[in-house]
Amino acid sequence: MNRWVLLEHKILCNNLIDIHFDFLVEDQLDCLTWKFHQIPLLNQGSVGIEKQPNHRLVWLSRIEHELSNNRGLVKRIDHGSYSDIFYNQDSKKLQIILNGNVLEGLLIIDGNYCQLRAIN
Fold first, then answer.
1. Which of 26, 48, 89, 120 is the most exposed place for a label (fewest CB within 10 A)?
2. How high does pLDDT run on average in the chain?
3. Is the Cβ–Cβ distance between 85 and 95 less than 8 Å?
4. Where residue 113 falls among pLDDT bands split at 50, 70, 90?
5. 60 phi and psi, to 5 degrees?
6. The pTM of the whole model exceeds 0.90
């Protein structure tokens, strides 16, 4: 199936709350995963991201979950299906068409940045 999910990840550390977003894309046996520093907005500038180790498929169906060992709380922000994927692990590039409520359009990941563009 061609599923993806955007999770808000909150971590409480030294009385400060760190919030970032985990973006997961189903890839057969697991999920390609990136950490988004903010949610990309349609036809706006690029946002900073970091490639993360692949995550288990179970995260695609979780709505809210408290992580073990004080690693925080994750909550689903958006999810949906994707099509027309292009992924090159060596060049760290991904182009994917997302069908969601918050993320809808062509998501372009290029190294440590991503942007969301409308599909004409």
1. 120
2. 93
3. yes
4. very high
5. -70, -25
6. yes
